[in-house]
Amino acid sequence: MSPETGLFGEWEEIGEFGGLGEFGGVGEFAMESSEAYPEIGLETAEGAEVGVAAAAGRAALALSSNLRAQIQKHRDAHARLMRAVEAMKKHIAVRNGRLHFTLPARSAAEAAARLGIDPKLFSHLHRSIRHRNVRLARAVAMQGAAPRRVTVSSEIQMEDGTCAGVTKSETVWWGLRLWLDECKTQSLVSALKGAGSASAVCAAAFGAEAALACGLIGVSGVLVDSIDKWGGNQGVILSWTWLQISGAIATPIVTSQGS
Q: Is 134 part of a structural domain of the chain?
């Protein structure tokens, strides 16, 4: 099964599902981070300015029908992913240094039906939890001791500069999200067009884990640049699931900070 299965609408059959035994019970567990999922984009007056800039950028941007279709594909995939994350997040708990999905169900189809989301997207995210736990276990083995804290979501925002947009990273139960301001977005675009290393751009901004994801990036500089311009040159957001990052090519969902 492709790591992209369930994200961009190219569905495949659901794999094995652990059911109640894998979920490990039906009780309620304390979350180790806020349940509120961060909104995408800027708010208040600044948000209004970004909206105007994005509208002006879209009006002035001449794109091929194929590029427009690709931009919409990423926007639709992001919307589907966020709806699924919102439905599943209240059932994610941390126990004994591992992430667990606690909703009782006999199959992926039943769990997805109870949540009101596509079963194949649910299966993808459920497998991403497993891959996150594998990564955590590897980190414990390398460190020789259990991590002091495992969180459902953690965020690091870099110091604000003079470029539009923000630069921050977010590690969540289902994957990794990187916000690149306009300057770093253009550095990434140049690297993807062959003028450098995408891995180096992400390593400089976010560290080794992000560098690994960017080193596997399966998206073109032309598309990233077009999405950025479509949103008014406010920078972009790259979103990967843990299941994607485990593959040989990790195509992120790319959205604009200004849309």
A: yes
Q: Collect all residues with Cβ–Cβ distance below 8 Å to 40 and sequence separation of at least 6.
A: 78, 82, 237, 255, 257
* 153 domain-assigned: yes
Q: 190-213: buried (b, 16+ CB within 10 Å) or exposed (e) per residue?
A: ebbeeeeebbebbbebbeeebbbb
Whole-angstrom distance, CA of residue 42 vs CA of residue 36: 16
pLDDT of residue 26: 30
Q: Are strands 175-180 and 236-241 parallel, antiparallel or unpaired?
A: antiparallel
Give this prediction's pTM: 0.74
Tell me the β-bridge partners of 71.
none
Domain assignment of residue 9, yes or no = no
Q: For 71-87, what is the mean pLDDT?
A: 94
Residue 7 included in any domain? no
- The total of structural domains in the chain comes to 1
The pair of structure tokens assigned to 225 is 């640049």
